[in-house]
Design brief:
The protein is built from 13 helices and 19 strands. The protein is an alpha+beta fold.
Length: about 450
């Protein structure tokens, strides 16, 4: 039986051995010196892993010089069968060697209790390794998948996926499928199987104020010269209330859809880990925390600099700058955010505060209909395998390049994450929880088995 085989792969140590080999390849896309490691991950590790399962693999260049290569693995069993496209990214953020807990290296998979430490264990090598292993369990048990499968591995997600959109447009026919089933991001909680169908969008921008050349002594000039830090602080304070409620006209979606509220209203945020304490009175009044994270727009100040924070001096600084972000849901108008902010600031006398869109940091918002036939079918499969109530999110609070699959390739998009909120992705001590990985392997194996037996009627 495929489930028995998949469980044995995990319990016998084969899965951990495979993941350890992948973690050991330092695929830091943020490090220009790691180009060879990115190619090794695709040409060596991924190609060998897929070819053992009967996939035909092609490594293709990135249309953009700033991006890494792509691997497309294809197993086509019959033209009449449904086709699943899956996705993962082989690149990771910087390893941060020497800063991890004593005895831990980012490039050595280390098991400590239920935690599997190593860079990429949660984001994303562990997650696509689970899905590849599940495909293998089905093939080795049944001798076939019972559907066609295409798997795209990119190597630039951690630097904004340069070239991914262009690549998908160029290779639209090669990537043609009926549905995307991928894995990235965290579950809502370690013990709760989760599906999400899209992402909140993100728009990063800068507010800056430059009043003069150079700093001036605060004793000689204090009271005579305007302080840009104070002015910009007041400008920023006008954007929300002291509790984070957005005050800029045009920055909010027209409504919180009833179906979205039904799905997320009572979800707990960040269960099962060492996450921060929730500030329940922050943000839009009258909404639950989950509605704010999954169904609404939020404004964040990511950094605010004036003067020299590291070595302050007794001088009035000449300038101040804040790097800000809007997270937004389907229904909001991201093209109108900065014009609306300009009007808001001008109306309050902040004409000299400049507003500029950041060169990087933009993702559109996406959200698949929660009642799509593929969605209902996948929820039923996961619930049947785990015996648990599956959390269904119309979108996650963060951002992924999901719009490329949803809009450019025109696919229904279903994401089944295998991590959890306190996994320390992008930080030191990144880890995958062994019980979550084991359960994920079982439910993905059963899901792929079910697709081969009786896919949704719409397929």
């Amino acid at each position: 039986m495929a489930l028995t085989r998949a469980t044995a792969v995990f319990d016998g140590g084969t899965f951990i051995s495979d993941l350890g080999r992948r973690v050991a390849i330092p695929t830091e896309s943020q490090n220009p010196a790691r180009g060879a490691a990115l190619r090794e991950y695709l040409d060596g590790e991924m190609r060998a892993s897929f070819e053992r399962l009967g996939f035909v693999c092609t490594v293709l260049p990135n249309p953009k010089a700033s991006g890494g290569p792509f691997l497309v693995a294809e197993r086509i069993e019959a033209d009449s069968l449904p086709t699943i496209l899956s996705y993962g990214h082989g690149d990771v953020v910087l390893g941060m060697e020497g800063k991890w807990r004593d005895g831990l290296s980012p490039w050595t998979l280390t098991r400590d209790g239920d935690r599997l430490y190593g860079r990429g264990t949660a984001d994303n090598k562990g997650q696509h390794s689970i899905n590849i292993t599940a495909l293998g369990a089905v093939i080795e048990t049944r001798g076939r998948l019972g559907f066609n499968c295409k798997f795209l591995i990119e190597t630039g997600e951690e630097i904004g996926s340069p070239g991914l959109r262009e690549f998908c447009v160029l290779e639209r026919e090669r990537l043609r499928a009926d549905v995307l089933i991928g894995s990235d991001g965290p579950r809502v909680g370690a013990d709760r199987p989760t599906i999400f169908l899209g992402t909140r969008g993100a728009l990063n921008f800068d507010l800056s104020l430059n009043l003069r050349e150079g700093s001036h002594h605060s004793g000689n000039w204090g009271g005579a010269l305007a302080n840009p830090g104070i002015i910009l602080a007041h400008a920023l304070a006008s954007i929300t209330t002291s509790k984070g409620k957005i005050l800029v006209d045009g920055w909010l979606p027209p409504e919180l859809p009833k179906r979205v509220s039904q799905l997320v209203r009572d979800l707990a945020i960040g269960e099962g880990g060492d996450g921060p304490v929730i500030d329940r009175d922050w943000g839009e009044p009258g909404m639950t925390t989950a509605e704010k994270v999954y169904g609404w727009n939020t404004f964040e100040i990511l950094s605010f600099v004036t003067g020299n924070p590291e070595k302050p001096v007794n001088a009035i600084p000449p300038s101040a700058r804040a790097h800000c972000q809007m997270r937004f849901v389907v229904g909001a108008d991201p093209d109108g955010f900065l014009p609306a902010l300009r009007r808001h600031l001008d109306a309050r006398g902040f004409h000299n505060v400049e507003v500029s869109r950041a060169e990087k940091g933009y993702f559109p918002a996406t959200r698949l209909d929660p009642d799509h036939p593929w969605v209902r079918w996948v929820v039923e499969s996961l619930a049947r395998t785990t015996g648990k109530d599956v959390a269904l999110l119309p979108n996650i609070g963060g951002s992924l390049p999901n719009d490329i699959f949803a809009n450019d390739l025109g696919l229904p998009t279903i994401w089944i994450p295998h991590s959890y909120p306190a996994c320390s992705q992008h930080a030191v001590n990144e880890h995958l929880l062994a019980p979550v990985a084991r359960e994920a392997l079982q439910m993905m194996t059963a899901l792929f088995w079910d697709i081969g037996e009786s896919p949704p009627k719409s397929a």
